[in-house]
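[step 3/7] inverse_fold.run input=structure_tokens len=137
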């Protein structure tokens, strides 16, 4: 598979985060795409999962060697190079190492992703993901 340039750029930024923090992994729809459970689509954001509390400013500083903004960042969003990362804290999260297109990624297991996605069935994208999963069983 040839990587979409947008996905490749996102992965490059995510790897900087993953390599800076050994307790952060990738969750959400992208791992389902990588596992081959749903088709690849345009990426709007990456869900990053941390097993411990971490300040978003620390991620920006340590992963991207960039001073954080002087104004407070609201919500759970981190933006770098126009790439949006949503940060979730889950002390019980686990991960698997998956080698994908030259990247060694820490990905949330399918079961954990589906458990957490089940709380978002009011979102059209999540409903579409679940329909695809059910049709592929």
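[step 3/7] decode complete -> sequence:
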């Amino acid at each position: 598979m040839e990587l979409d340039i947008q996905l490749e750029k996102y992965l490059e930024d995510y790897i900087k985060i993953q390599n800076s923090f050994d307790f952060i992994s990738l969750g959400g729809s992208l791992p389902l795409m990588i596992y081959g459970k749903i088709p690849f689509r345009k990426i709007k954001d990456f869900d990053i999962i941390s097993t411990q509390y971490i300040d978003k400013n620390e991620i920006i500083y340590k992963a991207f060697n960039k001073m954080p903004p002087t104004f407070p960042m609201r919500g759970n969003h981190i933006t770098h190079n126009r790439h949006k990362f949503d940060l979730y804290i889950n002390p019980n999260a686990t991960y698997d190492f998956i080698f994908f297109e030259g990247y060694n990624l820490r990905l949330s297991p399918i079961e954990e992703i589906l458990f957490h996605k089940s709380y978002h069935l009011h979102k059209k994208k999540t409903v579409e993901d679940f329909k695809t999963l059910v049709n592929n069983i």
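[step 4/7] annotate
The first helix runs from residue 5 to 20.
The chain has a mean pLDDT of 86.
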